[in-house]
Amino acid sequence: MPVYKDTQRSSWYVKYSTKDPVTGKRKQVMKRGFTRRADAVKWEAQQTASSASSTGVTFTEMDEMYIAYKNPRREATRQQERYRVQTYMAPFKDKPVDRITKAELMRWYSDLIALDLSEQVKNYCIYLVRSVFKFASDTYGIPNPTGQLKKIRMPKKQGYTVWTPDEFRQFISEVHSPVYAGLFTFMYYTGTRRGEAMAVRACDIDPDARTVRIEHQIKYAEEGFTELKTEASERVLRLPEKLWSAIRPLYERCTEDAPFLFGGERCLAITSIQRQFTKAIKASGVRQIRLHDLRHSFATNAINSGANIVAVSKYLGHSTINQTLETYTHLLEKTDEDMVKKMDDLINI
Prior knowledge:
Elements: E1 3-6, E2 11-19, E3 26-34, H1 37-53, H2 59-70, H3 75-88, H4 102-114, H5 119-140, H6 165-172, H7 178-190, H8 194-198, E4 205-206, E5 211-214, E6 235-238, H9 241-252, H10 270-284, H11 293-304, H12 309-316, H13 321-327, H14 329-346
Antiparallel strand pairs: 1-2, 2-3, 4-5, 5-6
Helix pairs in contact: 2-3, 2-5, 7-9, 7-11, 12-13
């Protein structure tokens, strides 16, 4: 026990060292002037208990360490996470992370569910708290009390409309500009996001291998290239032969001064893309969908055709296969029904 008698002063003192589990540094603690040994023992016990229960690293500081660790590709993602910590984790954002109790987290969880927020935002907050504590636990050995923070079940609804191949052919017949027709065809048959398709240049295409590399996106033409959402978004896609035949004339007309596959010297403007898309929908009489639903159409048609879900996930550039599974659960349930029917035909009893 680190309690000692100071014979010169006729008093007692405490002297011990502690180790910060986050920084790994040791520091010495010393306190003099206790008239009784019992008082020194009591103080030492209180300090030891306090230091054992807290590193002094707040939840916000641990989140900053976690952000640095996962290294998001876009600054906007970093800022969004910081905003949500400051806004929705206010009850414990400035509290030492290993002093946040399970009871506090459950109260926060109940309050979060009651907020007028979308299930998506609520689940992101839950995911963030769980991730920060897991990082603290895995890296620094800090206890993780988040086991009871369960993800909120999202309502089972499709939430988007897709076009069948026949509907797309009806739509594209009313797109009279080869550049816009090429863009919409490319998005429909590759599942690329609008910004990814806008950023494709001739140098991203390998005509011999019939592939296209997705490594940039353009949110707004005037801002130029920006990084993709995640590392998984960077991918090389094989182009179907008929799709390659459709966009090959656009590729062959590209030059060093006009490198964009869908554009020329500059990429197409978002407003022009949307205007041409809306105009062709009205002219063709097909069902109204969003431009992003071309991506959903690709995934839906691929899964309904029996494509491997792992291959579809990689083609879409999803971070995890779970993202694909959650988005297209309704299709997979239909696939399960088809599988059971096929198995029933195989069984001979």
